[in-house]
Amino acid sequence: DTAGEPGDAAGEPGAATAPGRLRSVAGLVADPDRAADVTVELVARRQQVRLASGRTIEGYTLNGSTPGPLMEVRQGQLLEVHLRNENVGDGVTLHWHGVDVPNAEDGVAGVTQDAVPAGAEHTYRFVADQAGTYWYHSHQVSHEQVLRGLLGPLVVHPRSRRDPAGTTDVVALAHLYSGTATLNGREGDVPVAAAAGGTVRVRLINTDNGPLRAWAAAPYRVLALDGTDVHGPTPVRDEAVTVTAGGRVDLEVTVPDDGSAVRLQVGGDTALVIGPAGTTAPAAPEPDRELDLLDYGSPAPLGFDPDRADRDFRYEIGRRPGFLDGRPGLWWTVNGHVYPDMPMFVVHEGDVVRVRIENHSGDVHPMHLHGHHAVVLSRDGRRATGSPWWFDSLNVNDGESFEVAFVADNPGVWMDHCHNLQHATEGLVTHLMYD
Ligand code: C2O
Ligand code: CU
């Protein structure tokens, strides 16, 4: 049967698709006869990479650089990526972090495909159904390959893009290479040319293992979280926003009329200096307060009723001594179990799923669910009252608990793991399965 135009019901042009709305996954599966709208050739290579600092690291590149090229498509377009592994001995894959692709395109070595060995190729094809900011990265030996650069940004523009005149759109991918903080591979202050009085959308992507704080010297708005528009974003002053490891935050800053620039600090070491060429920006002292996403923006329909859940899961993260692959150590646990004896979360297509996440492990975990977006219902018992806080990557601090919900609308076997990729190798990996 035919699926029609994927995800067009979201309303006004430019609106992101509401993730919780039941959608036809068939619309995401690219018709084999359909020609791709955007085709990208990517060559993965293991090589020495020279950082802007002059330091050389043993790393990975895509088409000769890290981060890899910015991929841009329009909502509803069919993206086709030809990946060739030139010389990466462990093999490589590409995972589309935050994009709810059909399961076979998810790029998880050992789950949805085999790693692509050196000398071989693999083609990914999917319809980009949700406008927003995403990234892609290898999902083979990821703690090593992602850390050393096998990654890049992906932007899905709204179906009909009508940026107001004077709006600039920039991507800022924050990554630590060998302990060196970079934005798009550059250290320190990165200039962004923008006209006085203009507005700038900054797509912050945190590809590190830990959370990142961002703040501007001037009021800013949070336009989107993990690829989903915030409803009714209001100006934020003297507060920093946390970008979860693996997560994305789209910010809007306005360039002052007086010809100066705005400094958008991304962590302690890197900043975007946004303004007319050659202008300087006043310092942006680090705020000690945090923007609380629980009550930011204004409420909007979720597209489903989380109080009528078909499944109720508990996901308690802990830590205890045990053996993993025969190695003794202190390992992460879910509901008391050590990998590979982890709980599987089994759902049926169409289920409304509620999950209570609790962290008693002594560390922070950026939990990432593949193939789905979930919404935060409450944190530490306090109900969310702002814009629906949709996420695919959620920063869960030690001692915190969250209630989240999602619609199981994308059949397959999906990883649900900590995006501190070191923690994932230490066993913090579970799966969501459809029966
Ligand atoms: Cu960004 Cu399973 O990963
Ligand atoms: Cu973790």
TrEMBL record:
The keyword Disulfide bond does not apply. Keywords: Copper, Metal-binding, Oxidoreductase. This is Multicopper oxidase family protein. It comes from Nocardioides mesophilus. InterPro entries: Cu-oxidase-like_N, Cu-oxidase_C, Cu-oxidase_fam, Cu_oxidase_Cu_BS, Cupredoxin. It comes from the Bacteria. The keyword tRNA processing does not apply. The lineage of its organism: Bacteria, Bacillati, Actinomycetota, Actinomycetes, Propionibacteriales. Residues 47-160, 332-434 form the Plastocyanin-like domain. PROSITE patterns: MULTICOPPER_OXIDASE2. One of its GO terms (molecular function) is oxidoreductase activity. Residues 3-18 have a biased composition (Low complexity).
